[in-house]
Amino acid sequence: MDAWQFIGRRLAIMVPTVFFVSVMIFGLQHLLPGDPATALLADDYDPEAARYLRERYHLDQPIYVQYLLWVGGLFQGDFGESIRNKIAVADLILAKLPVTIELAVISLFFALLIGIPAGILSAVKKDRPTDMIANVVALSGISIPNFWQGIMMILLFAVYLRWLPASGYVPFFEDPIENLRTMIMPAFVLGTGGAGVIMRHMRGAMLQTLGADYVRTARAKGLHERKVIAKHALRNALVPVITLGALEFGHLLSGAVLTEQIFSIPGFGKMIVEGVFTRDYTVVQSVVLVIALIYLSLNLVADVLYYVVNPRLRG
Asked: What local confidence, expressed as pLDDT, does residue 42 receive?
């Protein structure tokens, strides 16, 4: 199978997946109790104003008509208009997506920085205290809830030590230093879970390569253990971790909801939460769909990377 056939098959699988995801997003959003027009007007509720909002945003139409109108707009690049603040959803996405991407990139950096060395050390020191400590740390990173870890870090580094701001966001091009100061804590909180996952995969891959024939041959030639690990074992063990990194980036994008809320980061996660509470259908549907498309695209990238580095798939 050549590369284009491989990519074509993956794209063919993505099409029905995107359709199913769009139906799920649209349907589940409309199962939420309450009426968007009523929630938007709140104490200023007026029957005529509510009727106008329902007609303007097609909320008085059957659900399948609303879905077709929404999808038809998407094919034309029109994500609709926010019911709450009357701003085009495409503009909101362009404003908020870079913030969440920046958070995910820094989080992935922390995940790789912690997970890869910990996985290597754990494999090399298998069944020793170092291995057990690394496993405990990895499981802790996966198990500890982000909201609890975020609150504890705010108390320590913002309240007691006063090293970092407790919340807020400063655009990178406005003040790069302050931007990094506001992003370090949320990125670390979000990255620790990914570090645990990467560490476990790195450990498993390293254990497999350390027991391979070519590694035993390198040791038999008298090469130093560090050179055996770095040049022979690590190079091959990194292959599955590279593909995992692409998937983990998508997971970080979708998992930023709570973290952004805790640290008041104005990204996709915070926008989704506000959209759910205000019944802003167009915002929630479009943002979740964009995240799903990004995740599916990253999954395709991971498959292609694995195809490139694994000769057996090209046979």
From this structure: 65
